[in-house]
Specification:
By secondary structure, the chain is of the alpha+beta class. Helices cover about 25% and strands about 30% of the residues. It has 16 helices and 33 strands. The N and C termini lie far apart (about 60 Å). The protein binds guanosine-5'-triphosphate and magnesium ion. The site of magnesium ion has 5 residues, from helix 1.
Length: about 650
Amino acid sequence: MALLNLGIVAHVDAGKTSLTERLLFEAGAIAQPGSVNAGTTRTDSMELERQRGITIRAAVTSISLGDLTVNLLDTPGHPDFIAEVERSLAVLDAAVLVVSSVEGVQPQTVVIWRALRRIGVPTVLFLNKVDRAGANVARTLAQVQQRLTAHPVILTTVTGQGGHDARVRAVELDADPVVEAVADVDDAVLARWSAGEPVRPRQVRRAIRDAVRRDALTPVTCGSAVTGAGVPELRRILARVLPRYEDLGGPLAGTVFAVDRDGHGRRAWIRLWSGRLQVRDRVRFTDAAQPETVTQIAVSEPGGVLVRPAVSAGQIAAVRGLSARIGQHVGDPPRRHAYHFPPATRQALVEPVDPAQRLALFAGLSELADEDPLFDLRLDEHQEQAAIRLHGDVQKEVVAALLADRYGVQVRFSGTLTACIERVTGAGAAEDRIRERNNPYLAGVGLRIEAAPVGQGIRFHPGIEPGRLPPAFIAATEQGVRAALRQGRHGWPVTDCTVTMTASQYAPRQSRPHQKFDKSISSVAADFRNLAPVVIAAALRLAGTRVCQPVERFDLNVPQHTLDRVTALLGRLGAVVDDTSLAGGYTELSGTVPSSRVPQVVAALPDLTGGEAVLTTGFDHYAPVTGEEPPMLHRRGPDPADREVWFRAVPR
Ligand SMILES: Nc1nc2c(ncn2[C@@H]2O[C@H](COP(=O)(O)OP(=O)(O)OP(=O)(O)O)[C@@H](O)[C@H]2O)c(=O)[nH]1
Ligand SMILES: [Mg+2]
């Protein structure tokens, strides 16, 4: 059975969900195409998605296309949910990038295009909404060539665009413009073409298929997800031009790309790269301590997500029984280096409106964080507060609505602020030994922390310890270190450092016959987990940290006569302009600006430019906060840097 795992991706509102629905309809999977506006599509199945008409979670459906089964992954387009797209990209064989031919190429179109190129996912462009007033396929194509790809091959034409009866027709593959575009990237076609010999459609199709696979050429088609114009042509391209999944054999390998819950509990959505997974198999995912047993498998097939005894290479299945989290693998998947979109740069505290609902709130938040790891929930040890990192206000509203719908908890947000990080600047070491300096735990730990290159994250080395200390105690020490580093000296998460264990002591478990295990004289994992924060906090004080704030890259287009006022504003807000260019009475400025200042730029621009400014921004990097007191984040829970307070708050 031939398979294709196909992502439908785009800027918000370009028509991904509508196109998915249309593809389902044309394949005979549904009797009527549903509508986003009426809340009746298959893939926008969450209550909130239906109410709002936007996609929040990626959803899988399947269709048959001749001998081919296509799994369609409908993804969200709103930038607040970019993390969801990132996870989907990691498991695709190919993608359809939808561009509205009314709005043209939009900021998120460019962001997703770049991600697809970086991962190497063969892509078809679908210029949608040709039936809508204002549609302009030629203008959109020009933008595609300017902003996305220098090597498109245009495979359809449109007549009557901008009206309900717009028609789309396929271009003959031996037509001059097609052959010319293909000759650009295929030597054999070029040779025949320049010698004036005829090039057959079959040869052109084969050349297109090869070039798409090499990522040298992008097929472009147009149509309407609503009227269905151009969709048969798109189907033909999906079936004939895109590279299908190839089973190269090999042992079991799979990637978890989504987690959700239905009436029967938690499901991990897995794409299998090779091998076969059966019910009752015991599998072990990355970082899992124990293998776990698969209790149910439901495979995405043209008939729905159906319970099956097994899932095979290339397929997508919802699997129960595993606690595996998003991004974890079993075996050795081929494309391990997923593309990472910028992290969330804002942070807010969540509280229940009714204080009695605190526990319900925390239970709900933990479940949501399990389904969306970038949600980055930080629960206080005493569960008095929860801080979440957010991409934007829409995500905030969605979190509030999900908590209300699913868990019946009304919440409010407070203290939205820019989420900083702390980078380690030097090196420091500390050690605590059993029964010394008031250490209440039956554990001794020595740790060294040192600065690491930007982007490394936190690396933990057991150092000289393996063999001397039971692995469970090493793991507990690492857990304690990582928990403590979530709040640095200024309250922000500490990153880009290497932590090495330099010493350890423990009281071995009693092993005399008939002697019961006695916690009062034997070390337990909690001893290490609770001591490690104290030691790492002391080491961190010596090493020092620097607070770094997120900085965004911006592109700004303003009328030329407003340039002086705009540059003065940018300068005042700490922006650095590194490029300006002129085009037809407008100036295009680009540069960087601290994320914390972006709202002020956005607020001031309309007045300064008579509403004519076009601004796009996106996270670029973290830079040290200079020239002012670094912002502090209020600490949650006891501070391990204050040993006595910690020992009292976290008794053995
Ligand atoms: N006229 C016309 N309207 C369309 C077409 N495709 C989508 N729309 C409308 O555009 C709006 C957005 O469509 P969706 O399918 O939800 O777009 P989406 O890309 O899935 O949106 P998000 O998932 O929220 O990013 C809806 O009102 C659709 O009815 C089209 O081809 N023609
Ligand atoms: Mg959608």
